[in-house]
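User: Structure please.
Assistant: Input sequence and predicted structure:
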Amino acid sequence: MKSKLIKGFAIFAMILAASCSKNEENINTTTAPDIDAISKVAELSSNYINENQNLQAKPPKWLQVAAADIGAFFTAISNGDKFGEVIGAASAASAEKHLELNPIMASTSNDGGNINDINSNEVNAYDNYGEWHYRTIENVIKEGTNYATDGAFDNSKYYRATTQFLIENRVASERDFETFSLEDANERLAYDKELFNKYGLLGSLEFQNRQGRVKENVYKVLSSYFKVVENTYDIKRFVSYSLEVEKTISYSRMNEVEKKQILGVMATARYGFQYWNSIYN
């Protein structure tokens, strides 16, 4: 495992280098720490976790699916990938984890989840990341043969179904995927899987911060947010919490690159918690 992880990190380092070259200006853009916003998010998060301690509940089974998805999405969006690349690459992580926990889905059809019933957040300028992330997943997992071969997750099928769906719905163009091939998608998925399995969601953020890939505002806000993600049992409470945090970031002094990374992650988490809860319940 250790050798595979090192290899995975080495492969992904090349992806990061390529990403840096085509997105250098955006990735290097930063602002001074927004102490007010960081403190507000930390306070909201601490209050949420303290209230949770009074609940006699176990984490939902699907939390691993949602967390794997959030981690993969953060990796993609923090590297400055195009909209279609971010959605296509990151959503594969949750589809694979979903199939891992529910192998029966590989050979069955289902009605999908509640994506059409999830309310958008107009305050969050990057809410569409969460929406189309889960519309993409919904499109694929309704039919096991769309993303599984012989009972195992098949990223080549998932990649084809995902890119076709995004292009047909004019969410992305064929040109968007010219620099993000199936090979790239496979390497990204392998890296995300290794990173999540070794460190978990919060640990993955810590690892990437040590690699210098996370700006201070993003790191501090998501550190608080991810602690809540890993300690959530009540979906309605989490949605209310996330909406409040998203509002705080939307009206903060952070620059647009930082807001995009943070708010894109939060939109994905908010949609994801509601979506997977409907699938598993």
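Residues 195 and 204 are 6 Å apart (CA to CA).
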